[in-house]
Amino acid sequence: AAARLAAEQEVENLSGLSPNPEKDIFVVRENRTTCLMAEFAAKFIVPYDLITEQADIPLSRGAEMKGKCGTNESELELSWLEQAYTLKLFFLKEGHNTSRGPEAFWRLSRIQFTYDTSERTYFKDAVSPGKHTASSHWLSALVTPAGKSYECQAQQTISLISSDHQKSVQLLLSEVRLQPFDIPADFVFSEEHKCPVDQREQLEETLPLILGLILGLVIVITLGIYHIHLKLTASQVQIPRDRSQYKHMG
């Protein structure tokens, strides 16, 4: 059964299709159907040598990948530079009760990053070089309603704790489009669920336009009312206020 499942599973690195050289695209397919899709740019900031030095490690194009799709749990594993670096992303789908009734959502539940400080591309003369693992604890990130994809263009930072003297490794994610469950069709994302930062930026971009339209409408209405008022007052008979002038009338 395991051999048959492996034969039916396909994993594809489609990063070459992205116009952004820093952005990677990964697809996991099972039974000839897409079950996990991920697009993002990623970089790790790893302190070493008593935090006096740090390495900036991008996720390299052409990374080897593995994937696992499940009803409620999915995984994506990426390795590059001859497995000197390995990133594992774990996704979980679950439900909870709200005032509107039961609702399902998925989230990024765990991250594990393994790195080798003896690798010389990004680490320069590290003291006591070797492999270390940085992991998240009690993570609840990229929370998205079930049946939707997650989208966030803004950069997000997630902190991981390393086995290397409990140092903090920073994962920088940007230009994210991700869906680990319930993909509607082959290579097609579901409707996107935008992150709060993108929603706020979109509001900040459209708010001046909305306020400008409202202000313009108020000015037009005010000028219209003023014009109508002038016409009405011009057509009215002027009644003299001095009563002595009444005898000259009639």
Task: Tell me what the structure shows.
19% of the residues lie in helices and 46% in strands. It is α+β, with helices and mostly antiparallel strands and 250 residues long. A hairpin with a 4-residue loop joins strand 6 (73-80) and strand 7 (85-98). Strands 1, 2, 3, 4, 5, 6, 7, 8, 9, 10, 11, 12, 13 and 14 form a 14-stranded mixed sheet that branches. The chain folds into two domains: 9-191, Porin; 195-232. The protein has two helices and 14 strands. It has helices at 2-8, 196-235; strands spanning 9-13, 23-30, 33-48, 53-58, 64-68, 73-80, 85-98, 101-116, 131-135, 141-145, 149-152, 156-162, 168-179, 192-194. The longest helix has 40 residues, at 196-235.
Question: What descriptors fit this protein?
Answer:
alpha+beta, Porin, 2 domains, 2 helices, 250 residues, cell membrane, cytoplasmic vesicle, 14-stranded mixed beta sheet, lysosome
Helix content: 10-25%
**Poorly predicted regions:** 1-7, 201-205
Encode the helix/strand succession as letters.
HEEEEEEEEEEEEEEH
Radius of gyration from the alpha-carbon trace, in angstroms: 31 Å
The largest β sheet comes out as: 14 strands, mixed
How is the CATH topology of the largest domain named? Porin
**CATH-level-2 architecture of the largest domain:** Beta Barrel
In the CATH hierarchy, what is the class of the largest domain?
Mainly Beta
Dominant shape = elongated
What is the count of β-strands? 14
Structural class: alpha+beta
N-C termini distance: 112 Å
| Strand proportion | over 45%
Structural domains: how many: 2
Tally of helical runs: 2
